[in-house]
Amino acid sequence: MxxxxxxxxxxxxxxxxxxxxxxPVGIGDDTAVLxxxxxxxxxxxxxxxxxxxxxxxxxxxxxxxxxxxxxxLSDIAAMAGEPVAxxxxxxxxxxxxxxxxEELLEGMRQxxxxxxxxxxxxxxxxxxxxxxxxxxxxxxxxxxxPVLRSGARxxxxxxxxxxxxxxxxxxxxxxTPRVREATTLHADYEIHSMMDLSDGLASDIFHxxxxxxxxxxxxADLIPVVDALITDDRSPLDHALNDGEDFELLFTLPxxxxxxxxxxxPLVVPVTIIGEVTAGNNxxxxxxxxxxxxxxxGGYVHEW
Amino acid sequence: MxxxxxxxxxxxxxxxxxxxxxxPVGIGDDTAVLxxxxxxxxxxxxxxxxxxxxxxxxxxxxxxxxxxxxxxLSDIAAMAGEPVAxxxxxxxxxxxxxxxxEELLEGMRQxxxxxxxxxxxxxxxxxxxxxxxxxxxxxxxxxxxPVLRSGARxxxxxxxxxxxxxxxxxxxxxxTPRVREATTLHADYEIHSMMDLSDGLASDIFHxxxxxxxxxxxxADLIPVVDALITDDRSPLDHALNDGEDFELLFTLPxxxxxxxxxxxPLVVPVTIIGEVTAGNNxxxxxxxxxxxxxxxGGYVHEW
Lengths: 304, 304
Fold this sequence. Notes:
The structure is a homodimer.
Chain A: H1 3-16, E1 32-34, E2 41-49, H2 61-78, E3 81-93, H3 98-114, E4 118-127, E5 132-141, E6 157-161, H4 179-188, E7 193-196, H5 201-212, E8 215-219, H6 236-242, E9 249-253, H7 255-264, E10 271-278, E11 283-286, E12 292-294
Parallel strand pairs in A: 3-4, 8-11
Antiparallel strand pairs in A: 2-5, 3-5, 6-9, 6-10, 7-9, 8-10, 11-12
């Protein structure tokens, strides 16, 4: 939108991109052009705001760029999809170094390339305040179709990938979007519903409940936590339930399928059964002694 | 990204949207799903930043939303495309009225609907400073394909729709994205290259020159200006060359086609021939007496 500066930034994107046969027209025209083929498209957007999602005194521009693209890759993973193309809009603080935009871009480009994703469009602007980055990511479902939030069935087992609750320890930007893990799961198991964990298990699970019209019974003692990494006075379970930005997959599938899955452990991270899908719409957290707590949407789960 | 507030906003979008058969999964999952069909896709993003692109004391949230969607519709128009689906990311200032998000959305939804566009995804965030809105718009080229910036040929006539240089008078948000005009032109005339005017004719024309590898000879006295509306001490031509946000179409086509076009005048706004495409890469501005000025990329054209 603003002349000379945008022009240079766009040229920088252009130079860094490999030619992608799926993108007959990339950066440099009024819009990009993507080959249609016959596949459906997945589309998602996430915005990162300085002072809310990141602190520029604690993260390099490359790390911020990596996170901005990574959270979108995680959304495509949550549909068991294949990421294809990204559009990036950035507001750069007035007076920031010219290198800021390029380093952000390089962080986005690198992680995008790891997952076969091309940056096909961009818009740079001045910001009167902090840095703001919005990434829109387009992708394809696999031949088995997308895995929706709405497919959970009563009796399904509930599983998660990896370990939860240590995003604060690993600085919340150093995560692996579970793109490959999701497509492996979807190819080889009857996954009924799936989402990625961005706000914390205790909040996110209500999205599955809402979209699927079901309840959940989650076994607190089964939630995979990483005790050794937690250094504050909150329990690992508290972190696992309430901290956001784990970017692991939460999914449901028939119990027999889940048992086959946890026995085989086909992913680079462990898969754990943490509960089951129930009738009704309550989300219950149950401890090892059988004590039940009813969770509330968007609520913080206090220590118990 | 941030729990309860986003959840409500997403529900608001969901309630307002009509069902669109092209969008089997809209708001509410990790990504939206779009039917692929066999058509190619156009994709563009534009970000509006408070204090840079709009002033909240001078525009209502509905007008800001309308502008945020409108600038993207104008980009799809510039490819002679048909807009289909939008993804919206918003950073709302801390402490702003809850109605702010809804009014922005309503402004976007209304103009989107005028052009057959559905909002299929969104992300809302808090902002530590001003309001930031990023809209990504997806669409299809028509059966004749997209009109690129790179297709201008030496000898083409250069045309514009409407009148230039009064964006400041009409408050720069009250513009009509030339979606219908562009598809009419593309259907009935051999349009070689096209773009929308967002930064001002004197800057924007360099994008056509750069992408097409050509020069231009523009007749200053032929540029359609609106004398009567200008109230400051700058000339109408100065406004037409240097002010941004006209959102009219700049395009090239064979001279015989251009003559047929300006004689028939098939659009709701006038089409005017303002010059021709030349060999080389100079952009020349010529006055009625034949005096030539060489324009520079990104430069401001001083009064002459």
